[in-house]
Write the structure tokens for this entry.
Amino acid sequence: MRGAMKKISLVVILVLISVVIFGCLSVSAANMDFVDGSFLWQEDSYLLGIPAKSLSVFVESNFESDNVTIKNKEGNQFSESSYVGTGATVYSARELTVVVYGDVNGEGRVTTVDYILMKKAISDTDILQGAYKKAADVNQDGQIAAADYMMVKKSMGGTVDLYKGTSITPYQSEYKKEEYDTSNYRMDRSKINIGVYGWQKGTDSVFLQDSYFNDYKNNFGGDFIVAGTNSAKYYKFCEKYGIGFFAREKNLPRYTYGSAPERLDPTSFTDVESSLADYNDNYTYLWGDDVFDEPVADYFDWMAGVKTRYDAKFTDRFVFYNLNPVAPNGVTNGHGAADYRDYIRQYVNKIDTDFICFDIYPFNNQFNGMHPYYLENLDVVSTACRETGRDFWIITQTGSTAEEYKMTAAQLQWQSYTALAYGAKTIIYASYMPWWWVDNTCMVNKDGTKTDLWSAGKDCNEVIHTLSPVYMEYEHLGVSTIPGTTFLTKSQLRLQSRRNEARGYGGIRGFSDVESENGIIIGSFEKKDGNGYAMMLVESCDPYDMTVFSTVTFKVADSSCSKVTAYPDGKPQVLTAVDGVYSVELESGQGLFVTVE
């Protein structure tokens, strides 16, 4: 009997050992659910490696399985705009509790509140338990100490990566930052400038009258003109009404993408030097010369040579170059560049203009379409401008290819406010009068009649000019998005978030928990004197639909900041929070600048 008992005991022990071994193997198999290259890992029942300010879509993308469910600490599923924080639960191969290092109150971000809780946890060891206690051990040494909350403090300065628990080198720009002196220019670069492309075409003189120039300057709110006619009468009207202009085919030869290959020897500057030698115009409002429109990268060396010669002659004006946009297939139209990023990179490395300008037209109104790379184009140029210290200029769409498909006011203002969200300093409408768009779809018809789009531009310009003194006090930091659930921008808004992750962009500064049921573009800004932050909220649900309204709610990230001001119509309005939450409403395509100090 005793021998039998020994045999049974031995069998039980072997079974138990097998259970443990195979149980461990089973858990180990469950551990292998992450995609290759994922930074996430699991330890016991905890899921680690999630950075602060991570959306649920980011967490889900780290798993091989398509059946991943994420619930917050209250047991509810996350919205697309909410951060996944400590205490959340992820259900995949097994149930795991999220730990976000430094996030000890479960909000999914790291703030001074977490810093204070961690300091208290040193003397009050019961204040944090479970996942929250583990989140406080940011250096992963098994205890909560001063070293942990000091790492949190350093993370706010961008020198420590909390979710890896290691020191890091902050994101390094691929561009060199420069300081540009624009104080001598005839163009006032200390404000947001509004321009138009295309004053009149050919020899048509119907627009060479006082009423049109006065209306443009004093009612529409225009500051300058590109691509006006080459006539003394036109230049004199610009002088009379204080309208800046870039001369076209008057002082220097002007080239375009289509004409340059036949007309231009990229190794010769004879025509340019001859033209500069004869250059003697002294118009007060001659801001510079329009020299090249939509060049291919093959001509960048030649363009750099032109600028060098131009700058040697003038200190108070500059050459105007307008670059290609990204093409619908995601590359650039032309030769010499691998893709659009390479196109812009080559321009930056070769041509030292203190601005980058390009034109892109997002709307195919005939099919209610959207340029598939519109926001990416803005992001590529905005990033290059921000990191090199250049100004961001954009030429926007103000016409249609068929008369029955006229642009809406929401489409026009969406382009302008989106450009401001990406840090634009100059916005140029194309075209003011019919050039390539069909007549009756532009701002002014060929007979001089103003359209509804002119009125929409006037209203938008008034807001932008009123906002300009405040806007120009801030430096652009980057763009975040809320994808929403509708319209053609949804995929583009998602892609913007992925590009942010790739470059290590830290997200919105000064504000937190920015949420909306619809698509929103959020430009982030920091005050130049360091005493505040701002964001440009742009309603991006459906610019084709003028009836859309979107509500955006948000909180203030830093408790030391208490004054929140919105600028509807460009004018200040102090906001009041309800239970710590601020709320604003935006019409279709509308932008709203909000500051916190």
